[in-house]
C-alpha cells in the first residue's frame, strides 16, 4: 500500500524524474489527442460503430465531463494568462491557437462529433452560439460529486470544482428553452441525440489524494462517486435520453503528477512493466468495475435505453505499456 506521507524530494531529483515522466506522458497524450486511432477504438468500445449508420441517427450530441472534454467553458470570457492552456502548444495542431481545450488539438468528443457528421460542440457557456446540434457542458475541474461532499470531509482546500456533474445538468436544464419550444419537442430531440456522460471521477480522486488521505480511505468514496454518476444518468433518461455513453476513469497510477508526488515508494509499489503506481491503478479499476455494475443495473431498470460503457482504461494502459509502438504515428519522420 502506498504511503501518503509526502516527503518533498530534492529539487534536482524531482525535476529530472518529472521531466522523464513528462516526456513519456507527452508522447502518449500526443497520440491520444492527435490520432484518429483512439477515436475509432473509443467508438468501437462505446458501441457506436459503424459510423455511417450512427451518422444518420444522431441529431445532436450533449456532452458532460471535465478537462478531458472541456471545449472552452472555463475560459469562455477570456483565457487568463496564468493558465497553461492559454499558451502554445495548446491548440497548435488543429485550431492554430489555444481554445481552452486541454490538448494540442481536438478532443475525443471533437473527433466523435466529426466522425458522426456533426459540428464541433460549442461550449455551453459560449455567447451567441447555436446549440440545436448539441452542446458541450464539460468544464475543467468538473467532479462527479458536489463541492459540499468534499467540504464536509475537510477537503475544501484541495477540491477545485468549477462545475460538478449535477451543476452541468442544471446548465443543461437552463438551456432547454433555447433549443426546443415544448417538453414534447425537447424529448423528441433528446431521443434522437447522443449523450456522453464523463468521464467523471478523476478530479474527485484528485481532491482526496491531494489531501493525502490514505488510499484505503479514498476507496470509501468510490460508491458515492459512482452513485452520483448513476443519478446523473437517470436524470438524463428522465429528460428523454435513450442513447448514452459513459466512460470509465483512466489509470491514474500512470499520471506523472502522482508519480512525482509519491516519489519515495518501494520498487514493488510500481508495475514492473508500466512503472505505474499499482495501488492507484487498482483504485481506478475498482471505480470502473462499480461503474459497470451500476450501468448493468440501469440497463435492467430502463430496458428501452442503450447505455454504453467506454473503456478508456484499457486504451490508455496499452499506450503506456507499448508507447514505442506509436512513435511512427506521433513522429512521422521517425524510422
Summarize the structure.
By secondary structure, the chain is an alpha/beta fold. The chain has 14 helices and five strands.
What does the model show?
Helices cover 46% and strands 7% of the residues. It has 335 residues and is of the alpha/beta class. It has helices at residues 11-34, 36-46, 51-55, 108-115, 147-151, 165-179, 183-191, 202-210, 215-219, 222-239, 256-261, 278-301, 312-321, 327-330, and strands at residues 60-64, 134-136, 193-197, 243-247, 306-310. It has 14 helices and 5 strands. The model is unreliable at 3-42 (pLDDT under 50). Helix 1 (11-34) packs across helix 2 and helix 10 runs parallel beside helix 12 (278-301). This is GDSL esterase/lipase. The chain crosses the membrane at residues 37-55. One of its GO terms (molecular function) is hydrolase activity, acting on ester bonds.
What are the main properties of this structure?
335 residues, Rossmann fold, five-stranded parallel sheet, 14 helices, globular, disordered N terminus
**Can you tell me the CATH topology?**
Rossmann fold
Radius of gyration: 20 Å
- N to C succession of SSEs: HHHEHEHHHEHHHEHHEHH
Number of helices: 14
Tally of separate domains? 1
Low-confidence stretches: 3-42
**Percent range of helical residues:** 40-55%
The first-level CATH class is given as Alpha Beta
